[in-house]
């Protein structure tokens, strides 16, 4: 803008042209690099350690666990703990392993994810494109509500579900997940739809398309990436839920996390650490797979979740 | 719009009808559950409800009983220790990791994947893994002793004085990756010219971070702070899985107090009072933040 700023610029470009491009080349083993990568590697080891311990422990037999230390690799690899954790570990009276909890979690996660995303995307669409008077008031309550501790709202929901006759059932839990997924997902979709070019929406309106037609024919096909982000967010969130599972379901329909906790922290019987770790890994497997497969989209999901409010 | 006016103005309520119908779930959730539910709980915290909620108002009785209960006091102390240390450590560690990741390193994606994967795991899984690693008979303590340091003692989960630090280690393992990611995004938003200017002026790197970059990242830090803080107040599953509140009541937290009184001790009034206190705690965190974030913007 001013002359004093523009003057040195030609000199700088001239010098940059004479020199090779890019950052100044550094020796690979400079002191700085050793510090940098050393610190990162130590940190990475700390983060990886629990996963390693889980895997190693789950592949050992109990005698080896009693003798050895938890960090040593198994001398004799056995998959028995995995089989036992899946099919015959006991919680209270029934001894059919984690498989029951796994299928319960599947039956909870699939409908909860689909329904919560469907509801929230329509909400977000209405807020972005069909705003009516007072819509923002509801939206503000929703977003503020995201910060209220769940414990404050749990009991009123128990009453509502009991009145509806679905307290303790999977249906009830699906509704609860839909409710508590709504603030963040609505925000996610509202922001995404608002950023789409408005001309598209207007053109469709002129062509006579209505609320649902525009949603199904234009918004939905254009927004697949955000739907994937929402799915990642919901699948991991719902799968990992413990509180709602334990409050809103009966023991027969406990999700996997609740059953896992009951298996590992049951007081009776000999503690079988290898089975416990296999069970823990099995429960963590689904979100971990989602995480490793989705990569950058997961980061995008939590970043979107982070800017709520 | 003008065309509509000629063909008879539709009733106000019917305008944009599909949108309103589609928003019914949102309206119900916002008004009935979030607003109604919260008010209901606060109101019933002033009753002596036991097994079932009853509108028999007893003033602040439940709150007096709550603050007289040793278990609640321990819960609050734990939350304070856990909360303060989580904030400090996750911000410091998260920022250091983010700053290291921002040095145009190789394998950035690999490191990021490693630092963030615990965040994908549930608190139950986190708690159980660390319960096993901190197991004094087989875990870290026994390994160090086997190396020859026989008097080494590190059994946080069996020692009432330090059990909350055992929970803290697990909590930090799970959550610092998220903080790192958020702060890294903030660092990437800093203009490259700032760095160049600082280098031209010969300011050492740590000083640039401390006095220029961190103050510039204030909004990111505040958002991160709010996210960590609202997570801390909710901490429940981690304690249930790792220690079940033990040994004794040494690692109890408010969220667990609420659950136990509502669903196990059948003392709803206490549960409501305790959950209302949690709400107050969150309000103390959120309201100043909302004021700074939204109130401040209007003034400027």
From TrEMBL, chain A:
It comes from Shinella yambaruensis. It is a multi-pass membrane protein. Keywords: Membrane, Transmembrane, Transmembrane helix, Transport. Its main location: membrane. Gene3D superfamilies: MetI-like. SUPFAM superfamilies: MetI-like. Residues 102-294 form the ABC transmembrane type-1 domain. The chain crosses the membrane at residues 34-55, 108-128, 137-160, 166-193, 214-239, 277-299. Pfam families: BPD_transp_1. The keyword Transport applies. It is found in: Cell membrane. Belongs to the binding-protein-dependent transport system permease family. This is ABC transporter permease.
From TrEMBL, chain B:
Residues 76-291 form the ABC transmembrane type-1 domain. It holds the Pfam family BPD_transp_1. SUPFAM superfamilies: MetI-like (SSF161098). It is a multi-pass membrane protein. The chain crosses the membrane at residues 21-43, 79-101, 113-133, 162-187, 208-233, 272-292. It comes from the Bacteria. InterPro entries: ABC_transporter_permease (IPR051393), MetI-like (IPR000515), MetI-like_sf (IPR035906). It is found in: Cell membrane. Keywords: Cell membrane, Membrane, Transmembrane, Transmembrane helix, Transport. Belongs to the binding-protein-dependent transport system permease family. This is Sugar ABC transporter permease. It comes from Shinella yambaruensis.
């Amino acid at each position: 803008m001013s002359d004093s700023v523009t003057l040195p610029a030609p000199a700088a470009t001239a010098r940059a042209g004479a020199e090779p491009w890019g950052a100044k080349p550094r020796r690979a083993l400079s002191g700085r690099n050793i510090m940098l990568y050393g610190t990162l590697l130590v940190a990475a080891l700390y983060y990886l350690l629990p996963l390693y311990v889980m895997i190693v422990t789950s592949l050992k037999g109990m005698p080896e666990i009693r003798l050895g230390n938890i960090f040593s690799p198994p001398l004799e690899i056995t998959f028995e703990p995995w089989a036992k954790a899946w099919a015959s570990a006991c919680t209270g009276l029934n001894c059919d392993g984690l498989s029951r909890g796994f299928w319960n979690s599947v039956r909870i996660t699939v409908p909860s994810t689909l329904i919560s995303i469907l509801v929230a995307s329509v909400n977000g669409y209405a807020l972005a494109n069909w705003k009516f008077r007072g819509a923002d008031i509801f939206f503000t309550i929703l977003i503020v509500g995201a910060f209220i501790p769940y414990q404050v709202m749990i009991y009123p929901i128990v009453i509502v579900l009991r009145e509806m006759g679905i307290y303790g059932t999977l249906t009830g839990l699906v509704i609860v997940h839909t409710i508590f997924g709504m603030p963040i997902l609505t925000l996610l979709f509202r922001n995404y739809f608002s950023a789409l070019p408005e001309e598209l929406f207007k053109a469709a309106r002129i062509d006579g398309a209505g609320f649902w037609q525009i949603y199904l024919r234009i918004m939905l096909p254009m927004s697949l990436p955000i739907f994937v982000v929402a799915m990642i967010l919901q699948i991991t969130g719902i799968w990992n839920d413990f509180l709602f599972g334990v409050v809103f379901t009966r023991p027969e329909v406990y999700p996997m996390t609740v059953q896992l906790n009951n298996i590992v922290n049951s007081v009776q019987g000999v503690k079988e650490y290898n089975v416990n770790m296999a069970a823990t890994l099995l429960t963590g497997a689904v979100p971990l797979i989602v995480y490793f497969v989705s990569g950058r989209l997961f980061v995008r999901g939590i970043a979107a979740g982070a800017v709520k409010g | 719009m003008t065309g509509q006016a000629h063909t008879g103005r539709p009733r106000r309520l019917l305008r944009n009808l599909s949108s309103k119908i589609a928003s019914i779930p949102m309206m119900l959730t916002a008004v009935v559950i979030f607003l109604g539910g919260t008010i209901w709980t606060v109101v019933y915290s002033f009753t002596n409800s036991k097994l079932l909620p009853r509108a028999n108002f007893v003033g602040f009785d439940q709150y007096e009983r709550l603050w007289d209960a040793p278990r609640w006091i321990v819960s609050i102390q734990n939350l304070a220790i856990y909360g303060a240390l989580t904030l400090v450590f996750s911000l410091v560690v998260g920022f250091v990791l983010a700053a290291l990741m921002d040095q145009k390193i190789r394998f950035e994606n690999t490191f990021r994947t490693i630092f963030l994967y615990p965040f994908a795991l549930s608190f139950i899984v986190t708690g159980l893994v660390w319960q096993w690693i901190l197991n004094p008979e087989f875990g870290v303590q026994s390994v160090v002793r086997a190396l020859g340091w026989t008097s080494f003692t590190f059994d946080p989960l069996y020692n009432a004085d330090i059990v909350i630090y055992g929970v803290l280690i697990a909590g930090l393992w799970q959550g610092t990756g998220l903080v790192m990611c958020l702060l890294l995004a903030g660092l990437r938003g800093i203009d490259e010219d700032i760095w160049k200017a600082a280098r031209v002026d010969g300011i050492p790197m740590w000083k640039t971070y401390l006095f220029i970059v961190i103050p510039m990242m204030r909004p990111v830090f505040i958002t991160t702070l709010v996210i960590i803080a609202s997570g801390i107040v909710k901490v429940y599953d981690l304690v249930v899985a790792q220690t079940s509140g033990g040994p004794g009541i040494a690692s109890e937290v408010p969220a667990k107090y609420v659950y136990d009184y509502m669903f196990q001790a059948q003392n709803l009034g206490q549960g409501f009072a305790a959950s209302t206190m949690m709400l107050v705690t969150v309000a103390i965190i959120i309201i100043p933040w909302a004021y700074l974030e939204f109130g401040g913007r209007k003034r400027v």
